[in-house]
Amino acid sequence: ATTEIYTLSLHDALPIFLACASSDLDSADTGLRSCNGDPAFCARPFDQVAVVGTHNSMSSAQDEWLAPNQNLNVLAQLALGVRALNLDVYEEDGALLTCHGYCSLGSRPLDEALTELRGWLDAHPDQVLSLTFESYITPEQMAASFESAGLAHMSFEREPSALWPTLDEMIEANTRLVVWTDNGGGDPAWYADINQHVWETNYAFKQVEDFDCSFRRGREDQSYVILAHFLTDPIASEDLASQANNGEVLRARVQACEAVDRTPNLVLVDFVDLGEVFEVVSEINATWQD
Question: What global pTM score does this model have?
Answer without folding.
Answer: 0.89
